[in-house]
Structures are given as C-alpha cells and as structure tokens.
Predict the structure.
Amino acid sequence: MAEISAAMVKELRQATDAPMMDCKKALTESNGDMDKAKEWLRERGIAQAAKKADRVAAEGSIGLKISPDFKRATLVEVNSETDFVAKNEGFQKLVATSVEQAYNTEADTAEALRQTELDGQAFSVYFDEAVAKIGEKIELRRIAALSGAENVAVNGYLHSNGRIGVIVAIECDSAKTADALAPVAKQVAMHASAMKPSTLSYKDFDADFVEAETKGRIEAIKKENEELARLKKPLKNVPEYISMAQLTDDVMAAAEAKIKEELLAEGKPEKIIPNILPGKMARFIEDNTTLDKEQALLDQNYVLDDKKTVAEAVADAGKAAGGTAEIVAFVRLEVGEGIEKKADDFAAEVAAQMA
C-alpha cells in the first residue's frame, strides 16, 4: 500500500475541489495513483448525483453567446435545485462554459452537447465533474440558436437576473441594413424579455387554441361585467373575436357594413362616412385581436414606442437605414418554465429522515 502524503492530498484537492477527506480516501482506494483517484472521485460524484435524481431542478441560469459580427447567437439553460447555488461562482462558470461549448460546436440539444469533446474528453465528463464539485442536482436542460446570412442581423439580451434570455433574427435587404439593425435586434430582444410573447405571429396559432381562448375570454369578461354592473361601473366591451386569424374577409366586410349602419342611424351624413370608417375599423381590429397583442411578438405594441407594433417599428428602422427589415425568428427562454415544482413539506421531510 502506497503511503499517502499531505502533499498528494493537497494536489488532488487543488485539481478536483473535492473535500480533503474524500481526496485522502480516493488516494487510499487508488493506492496513490492520482489519475485513478480522480476517476474514483468522479464516479462517486455521479453516484451522489443519481441519489438526487428524484429532486426537482427548476432554478438556475441562462447563458448567452453572440458572435462579434451579429450573425449567430446561442442560448443555454442550466438548472439547479436552489437559487442559492445558481448564484455560486462554480455554477456560473459551468453555465458560461456550457454556452461557449454549444456555440463553438453548434450542438442543438443537451444530449448532443454532452457528446461533444472538450479538452480531449467528452463534455459530459467535464459537466458531471463540475456538478460533483458543486454538490447539488444540476441539469443541462435546453439549447437554442439562431444564425443568418450576411443580410441577417442576430442579436440577443440576457436579463440582469440571468433567468431570462432572448435571441432575435432580423432579415434585411442587404448586409449594410443588417449591420444597422443589430442594435434594434437587441432592443426587440429586451422587449420580448419583458412582454413574454409565446410565438412570432398570429399566423402561428392553432385554430383549436384560438377557439378555446375565445370562449374562455368572452365568458371571463361577461362575469367581470356582472360585477361591474352591480357596482354601477362602466362595462367592458365583449369582443366577438380575439385574433387576426379570425378576421376573415367576410368578417371584415360584415363589420364595415354594421359600422356604416350605425353611423347612418346616428344621423351622420353619408358623404363623410368614408372619412370616419378607417378609424372605426382600426378600433374594431384593436378590440378583436387581444390574443395577438398578448402573445404574438410582431403584433405586440412596442415598448419603446407603443403607437407602433413591433413589426412596424422594425420595418421603420429598416427604412430609416435605407432598406427593409423584418423579424423572421426569435427564441425566449426563462429558467424553469414548464417545470412543475414540488411543494415543500418540511415536517414530512424531517419525519422521513427520523424514521
């Protein structure tokens, strides 16, 4: 049996960040072989991680990497069990390395990233060793990336809390316009961070989803109006529709005819109705596209100029740069979205440990 010196334990600890006692035991079990001791610690870390497998990792951070020429951007979500660990320096380094590796290798899924190579070994080895050092359940959850040709501007935004990341791609008429629109792409990403769009355009909505949302929203407004009526307050307008997807040519023609009838009934001269009609139709569209305003990025009112939609603001920015511009893609990741968190039952946890 090889003699395990304090210097050997110190060397292994510096190389792995493992506790001193674990380092000494690893060297003892490995008969003083440093490489075997590192492997012993790594396997022990994986075993410990397996014990944590049933825990929920719904905290964490988003990593963002943008190319200097604004043609590529990558987002990575790494989850932890607690917000405390998410702020740990070791965890933040793990996130930064993960997004750098995803960007460099163009891996598009967590599993693909784990299979890439970093410093002569599988990235999964690096990741699992880092997790073992941190000592909490940590998961590489999602990766998203956007890229474009020379006429595309790709930029992004990472919120200051590290929990929300957005990347945006704007297609332009030329490379010159794309260069000018790179800052605008970041501004749109900041908008999306705050306004939480779920899709690019109302055209992306599923018809069944729109129908179900319509019924739900109408019923909700009706119930709210009952309470407003009881309080003798002004009632809210009950829309017929909630998305531009529902405003077919027939629907628009019927709405225009109805508005004309109402204006004539109010005694408005027929010759001035064409002057009033555009504003009334714009109001009809506004009242009947609430779903689009809430969830479709292009149709939301732009936070930097709420008199315009996001689509209009970007088009105007392209025009100001001497060309054309249109958002063609975006991705918004928020830490833990879609993960069901377990409710903590401290008493039950203590009882289980005492059993």
